[in-house]
Amino acid sequence: MLRLPIRLLLILTLVAALAQQAYSTTVTIHTEDARTTLLALQNRSLSHEDAMKIAEMHGNQAVLQKLHEFKITSTTEDFANALYATAHGEPITKENEKDILLEIEEPKIPQLLALLKDIDANPKAFQQSIKQRIALFVPPNTDIHLEGYVVAAGDGGGYTFGGTDFFLNIGIVDDIVVAQVTTTHELYHAVQGAFAADRELKIHNPQGHAQQACIASGHLFDSLYEEGSAMYVGDLSLLPKSHSPAATRTLTDVNDGLKHIQNSVTLLEMSFIALNASEPVPYDEVYAVDFFGHAVVYNIAYVMAKAIVAQDGPQGLAAFLKQPTYKFVLRYIQLPAYGMDKDHPKLGPNTIDAANQLANGCN
Known about the structure:
Elements: H1 3-22, E1 25-30, H2 32-41, H3 48-55, H4 58-69, H5 76-87, H6 95-98, H7 102-105, H8 109-121, H9 123-135, E2 144-151, E3 158-160, E4 165-169, H10 176-194, H11 196-199, H12 208-233, H13 245-259, H14 261-275, H15 283-291, H16 297-312, H17 314-318, H18 326-334, H19 349-359
Parallel strand pairs: 1-2, 2-4
Antiparallel strand pairs: 3-4
């Protein structure tokens, strides 16, 4: 009598295990772009042809794409010229070549190569905790594959471009703990990219200034949700484990931003006023003020994500991967503790009005 239930239990266990394997978030991290660049910087016999091939690598093309977001027009040839000149000890005089920032990497080449060795030596150790963290914040049965590329040039510690590739710049992020936090942050952006179609606003043929402004507000809510949730998933609590300058600088910036959280709320409010003005400020300019440089709006975005997880759990945040991002704001202002303490600051009326207008289809 006992054999049938035991066999049935084994079968069910096997089926469950196979189902679990069928759905997973997998990650591949490529380090060859960074390693090839760093080794080339030490190669006094580097040819310009080889420098051009290195500049054309996928990760290094992403370096240039990121610079273009900063309105820096460096080209593949500029990258190759900067690489060639630095390898041969020649001065770099052209601004677009200086902007590749290879002089940041050059003094740290042994340190950066050692960091790459740490990542490659035990990829499971580096990736496992990252994947475990990400798994908390994705919907059940998520099945996506993400590609990460480590680079050693340009500006920005980590970035994505709306797809499922992500990029980690060890020239800026030169510590294993900070690399782990940044990789987790950027990996979650790649997850967001996989669900981008689910969050897309369904407003067709917008008519007039008001609807155009409403759509611009929607883009700002996209960035608010994407950066706040990725910053939270990145797990800043790991940073005190490192005493590197990069970790210390990041912690200092975060703590200062949270100390002055009302500045972040105010800048966000001013951004919606600017987007909805009779002569609106272009969205790209608003985004640059909010999320580049000191990136002040990151702070309120992070506080909102943290508050939602505290109330609704990790899956409460994961739910917004498949929802229009104004709902992230509407959920935040519905929290029981909203406006009650420094961890739940009130948002400005124009911010809330913009979310409600989107909820009404921009009508």
